[in-house]
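Dear colleague,

Thank you for sharing your sequence with our group. We've completed the structure prediction you requested, and as agreed, I am returning the results in plain text so they can be pasted directly into your records. Please verify that the sequence below matches your submission; if there's any discrepancy, let me know and we will rerun it promptly.
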Amino acid sequence: MLNPAGRGSRHHGFTLVEILVALAVFSVLMVIAYQGVARMATTKQVMDADNRKWREWTVALARFEEDFSQVADRSWRDEGGVAQPPLRGSAGAIDFNGAQLEFVRYDGGQLTRMGYRLREGKLELLLWNSLDLAPRNGPTALAMLDKVQTFKTRYLDANGQWQLSWPQGPGTPPPPRGVEIELTMETGETITRMFALP
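Please find the predicted structure tokens below.
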């Protein structure tokens, strides 16, 4: 014989305590998930910045390699008509353009004068539109690297000795046998490379 509807049956639901426990567990899981996603996002940002930094360094070093492999033993005349050596460099600015290193290189079968300077934390490539300069003929500056603290150079002479400036005496001597570049970044990292000259 069947019981009348509802008689003897039990209806189970969630108690208030069970709901609060479930909400607490869900909240903990959400916090853990959020922290994991936040850590992944932070890690990706760090990796992207690191990859960008190495890519910029690689491009800059490749530019140095290309320029120094094409240095030409050809003197040039400055704005005053005075003959200058094919390559000259110093720890400080060489001229009013602020260049620390200047040289002549082959560029597509032509001779070009170019240089490098550090200005306001940026390493810049300097390009002149002519080899022998007319008065007030300044260079075009192209940014190569950002957040650079120091830019140092050394020059290998014919006796195998490193010099802090080039040339060592008056006249227009040939380029050195090699050039060493040292860059110190604002992060404290230092890049040092040596390049043989032709």
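Summary note from our side: The mean pLDDT is 86.

Kind regards,
the structure core
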